[in-house]
Write a structure and sequence with these properties.
The chain has 372 residues and is an alpha/beta fold. The chain has helices at 14-24, 31-41, 44-57, 68-80, 95-98, 131-146, 159-167, 189-198, 215-225, 240-250, 268-275, 284-301, 316-323, 333-340, 344-356; strands spanning 84-87, 106-111, 120-124, 150-153, 172-176, 200-203, 229-232, 254-257, 279-280, 331-332, 360-363, 367-370.
């Protein structure tokens, strides 16, 4: 199943790993609900058995549970690729990533897992980057590697490619939007292979998944979650790079930006971030200084994460009270708890039931809305 024939992460039997993967690959079960189900029922096998009843309580049909054969085929395919699964809540899943809201329930990784134990910085930017920015990013990444800092990026054209190329010798992590065996963009075929053998390649989607537009925001949160901070080298005001930077800010990580000419649209996003409080970066020393100011605090929180158990059984009146507060506009879960005056465990249970019933959608920032 995993490298050397070991079970993924160790510590559990094959049946439980299969159940973990079935749970994760079941429609309507996202990272938040997967973590809550396992926290509530103790094992993935018991959680799978409970899904139909929870969906019924939420007022909808039960999702079609992913089959045993599907999970086994995925594990066999991952092993054949020289990769392995990392499951949330079990080493060696990256503890820094485990801190974020909606951390992936499973990662597929190929390469040097030891890189996850080193301090990391995300470096992102424009796909149509200027030649000067590409050269700067490559040099910056190489200097950061010399300082023992792992560079994380998304293997896209432009700044991402330069960041990986510059840091490959010292250690780089690439998070891809599709399957770990899918090369995108095509011209990065050789670079993706080099990262998988010399660095670390990470995917959240199953093997064979072609990257779609909806996958990139998920990838961006992983890039930010793996890193102590995110450095933006060039970016337009509404680019995916700024989304990654905002994720970093939401996670309590450092947000950094390289300033650029106000006459260049590709610099507007970076200049905007600096105006909003991002750290201005001109050298690798600036990055190291910025990360040092928060690194101890972030690492101090690592290792103590566990999803809060939700073992509450709401009454019909409590369900109605909470559902009345929900609508098509996403609302923070904390606000739902405050407005409903219900215990957090009750609120989380009702939201879980609604999600399994196909009536609730979860959004970034711990928000939720009803789907219809």
């Amino acid at each position: 199943m995993a490298d050397g024939g070991e079970t993924p992460g160790g510590g559990l039997g094959d049946e439980e790993w299969i159940a973990h993967l079935r749970l994760i690959r079941t429609p309507r079960i996202g990272p938040v609900s997967c973590a809550q189900l396992i926290a509530r029922f103790g094992t993935a096998r018991r959680a799978l058995a409970a899904v139909p009843d929870l969906a019924r309580r939420g007022g909808g049909p039960a999702p079609a549970l992913a089959g045993v054969d599907l999970a086994r085929r995925e594990m066999e395919r991952v092993a054949a690729l020289g990769a392995r699964h990392l499951f949330h809540g079990h080493p060696p899943y990256p503890p820094l990533l485990a801190q974020i809201d909606g951390a992936p329930a499973v990662l597929i990784v190929r390469g040097r897992i030891d890189l996850l134990d080193r301090p990391a910085v995300a470096m992102v930017g424009a796909r149509n980057a200027s030649a000067a920015a590409v050269r700067f990013a490559r040099g910056m990444a190489a200097e950061l590697g010399e300082r023992g800092i792992v560079v994380v990026s998304g293997l896209a054209r432009g700044i991402d490619t330069a960041a990986h190329a510059g840091s490959l010798a010292a250690g780089t992590i690439a998070v891809v939007a599709g399957g770990i065996d899918v090369v995108y963009p095509p011209e990065n075929d050789a670079l993706q292979y080099a990262i998988a053998t010399q660095g670390l390649l990470i995917a959240e989607q199953p093997p064979g998944t072609e990257p779609r537009a909806r996958h990139f925001p998920y990838r961006n949160r992983v890039i930010a979650g793996l890193s102590l901070g995110t450095l933006v080298v060039e970016a337009a005001p509404k680019s995916g790079s700024l989304i990654t930077a905002r994720h970093a800010g939401d996670y309590g990580r450092e947000v950094m930006a390289v300033p650029g000419s106000p006459l260049d649209p590709r610099a507007q996003g970076c200049n905007l971030l600096i105006r909003e409080g991002a750290t201005l970066i001109q050298s690798a020393a600036d990055v190291a200084e910025a990360l040092g100011s928060i690194g101890g605090g972030v690492f101090a929180r690592v290792g103590g994460y566990a999803p809060a158990p939700i073992a509450a059984d709401p009454s019909d009146a409590e369900r109605r009270r909470l559902i009345a507060l929900l609508g098509p506009v996403p609302v923070p879960v904390d606000e739902l708890i405050r407005l409903s005056a219900l215990p957090p465990a009750i609120v989380q249970t009702v939201l879980l039931e609604l999600e399994l019933a196909g009536r609730l959608e979860r959004h970034a920032g711990g928000r939720a809305s009803v789907t219809g």
